[in-house]
Structure formats: C-alpha cells, structure tokens
Amino acid sequence: MNRLHNLMRATPLVAALWLTGCVNLAPTLERPALPVPAQLPAVEGAAAGAVAQPTWQSVVQDANLSQVVELALTNNRDLKVSLLNVQRAQAQLRLTDADRWPTLSAAVIGQRAPNSEGVQATTLQAGLQLSSYEIDLLGRLRNASDAASASLMGTEAAARSARLALVSQTIGAWLTLAADEEQLTRVRQQLVAREETLRLTALRERVGAASALDLQSAQSLVAAAKASALQLERQKAQDKLALDLVVGKGVPAELLPSAELTSRDWLAPVRAGVSSDALLSRPDVIQAEQQLAAANANIGAARAAMFPRIVLSGSAGQVSSSLSTLFDGGHFAWTMTANAAMTLFDAGRNQANIKVSEVNRDIAVAQYEKAVQTAFREAADALVSQGSWAQQVQAQQQLVAAERERTRLTRLRLQVGSASLLETLETERSLASAEQALVQVKLAELLNRMALYKALGGDEARQQR
C-alpha cells in the first residue's frame, strides 16, 4: 500500500514528463510567391499540363553509355560525399529528437553524511535516475527538432540534385569524347587524301603541269590537317581523363564511344510542360525550400529562449543503510526536483539570437527565390534552344551534302581540265570545315537535350510529385 501511495503521489510529476510542445513560437511558414512568370516559354510540342520526366535510362539510347553512367553512380566520390551527408543529417536529427525525451539511467549511489541527529550515517540507493529533462512548454525543443528534420530533407534533396548533375555531366563528357573521336577520324581521312593530293601535285609540278603556287597550297593543306590532328589527339586525351574523373575510375575501352556522333540520335527527345510550377519539384528548389523551413523553425527556438525553462530531475528505487538489506521490500523511495529559471540579464544575447534567426530566415527566402529564378532561366534557355538546335543540325547536314556534291563535281572538272587545282583544294577545305561544324552542332544539340532534362529535374522531380 505504501508503494501504491507513493506512485499515486508521483503521478502528477510523471504526467509532466510528457507535457511538451504546448505553444509554438515559430512564425507560420508560407512558401514565397514564384518570382518568375507563371508559364515557361511556349515551344512547339509543349504539353499543357505537367509532364513527368522519364528516367535517364529511357533517355539514353546506347547500351555502352548507360553502363558508363551506372559506373559513375557507383564510383563518383562527390556523390558518395552527398550520400554520407544524408547519413550524418539523419544521425543529427536523432540527436536533436533525443533532447525531447527523458534520459533514464540505472544507478547505485552510496552516501556517507550526518543525519538529522548529527550522527554519520550511510545511505545506499539503487534504482532509476532522471537527468535534467526539460518540459518543452514553448516548443523550443520541438522547433529545434523541426529544423533538424528540414535540414535532413534538404540534404536528401541535395543528394538527389548531385545525382542528377552527375548523370548529366557523365553523359555530356561521354558525348564530347564521341565528338572528339569523329572529328579526329575525319581529320585523319582528310590528311590521307591531302597527302595523296600533295604527291600528285608534286609530280605535276615537276613536269610543268602545275605551278609552284599549286604545290604550296597543297603543302599548306597537309600541314593544316596535321596540326588539326595533333590538336584533336590532345583534346581527346584530355576529355578521356575528364570522363574518368567524373566516373571515378578508368572507363573500359569497350565502353568508350565510336566515331558515330552524327550518324544517330544518342538521346531521346525531352518533353516539357508549360507551367512554371513544375520547377518546384527540382531537387535544388526543394533543398532551398527546406532550408527556409529550417530557418523558420529556428526563429521559434530563439524566441522560446526568452521565457523560463522548466527542468525536472529525480530518482526512484530501493534505499537502505546497508547493502545486505538494499533490495528488501519496504525500502522504496523517490525524489523529484523541478527547476524553473528565466534569464533576467544577458546583455541582449537572446534578442540578438532572435534577430540573427530572423535575418537567416530572410536570407533563406532570398535564396529560395534565387533557386526558382535559376531553375526558370535554365529551363527557358534549354526550351527556346531546343527547336533552333534541331533546325541548325538539319541546315548543317544540308550544307555538308551540298559541299560534298560541289567537291565531287569540282574533282570531275579538274580531271577534264576545266577546273584548277586551287579551286579543287578550296572546295575540299570548305567540305572539311562543314563536316567539323556538323559534329560540333550535333554535339551542342545533344547537350541541350540533356540540359533540358536536368533543368526540369529529370526523374528526380517525378519522384517528388
């Protein structure tokens, strides 16, 4: 009965342990209005509503390139750091949440002190201890936990953003290497043809059928082709190293691109909607929004620090004057201490903390708006460029076809003596320039497709809806 009576007396104090979060001093969190037009630039083929972006696996239309992207997702060190940051944020959230709950310890305490009669007495206690548990009446701890939770979600969004950027960067590096390979192949073919032309021109010059100017022109074209080949070989080697760095390991030779950049579509077309609201699902925009939520929660925690804190401490267990009778019945006892403290003077520290948290919130608002503006600009740039790049590729292909036909006809005229060697060399130079430009334009068109996919958030945005 005594033990039951003691527990009943302790009931109000035990109930107080669970009294948390009665008041929340954090301001109401509102998402700022979009600081961009409500609609993305109108382009042909744009959907009226939101368009769920496909996975990168369905965008990439080459098995080797897909394997290279998988290697990058497995080995890239920056992505590994982003994922580890998520694990750290998860652990930090658990630490912050733990502050909202009591810390109970099992303890055996021995004390030797004078009793009420002035006689030295021994007191032994074995049981549970409650250490400095704060009753979160004003939501200080809850707001701290909310801030940590928002930080975790922001870190997770940052990891998704890093993954999307890595996919885009890997594909871009692989396609750039493919462009290097095709350009180098074309230059080497041109070099072989020009060396043959130089040999024939030298023979003709010896018998008086060609002038010294013709010979010098042929030599100039050979030297130009050699210089271009050396430059492209150096560029290819550098771009290969860049691809290896992005992937995180050396890319196997069998997965490297062939010289076929302009012969096929390596990436599927990317569709887009017209509403700017779709940009809110981008991982980087979500990250900025969660940073704003964390800053808003920190205001509540700073405001709560202005008010008294109620902290409980206590213990409950068996008490005895000797170890032999410590665990005998009838020796149960408990203690409970409540401490309420309020800062009267701190030289303006708490007020300054509130001001800092409010300014941090305002900074987070500006950063969120900047993230939305950046997302809009990137998506708009890629959208308006999409059609023009495709048209430019077609125009460049027509130019190459025309230059090839002109070169063929000029060579026929040279054979019958109605065209000069200089005229023939000039058409060959124009053809080589047009072919090199076609490779660059095709590469730019493919990179713009990937830029649009990334600007719309890719399949990472679809996972957020």
Automatic annotation (TrEMBL):
Cross-referenced SUPFAM superfamilies: Outer membrane efflux proteins (OEP)
Family classification: Belongs to the outer membrane factor (OMF) (TC 1.B.17) family.
Keyword check for Flavoprotein: no
Signal peptide limits: 1-25
UniProt xrefs under NCBIfam families: outer_NodT
Protein name: Efflux transporter outer membrane subunit
Record keywords: Lipoprotein, Membrane, Palmitate, Signal, Transmembrane, Transmembrane beta strand
Upper classification of the organism: Bacteria, Pseudomonadati, Pseudomonadota, Betaproteobacteria, Burkholderiales
Membrane topology recorded in Swiss-Prot or TrEMBL: Lipid-anchor
Keyword Transmembrane: yes
Superkingdom: Bacteria
Location of this chain's protein in the cell: Cell membrane
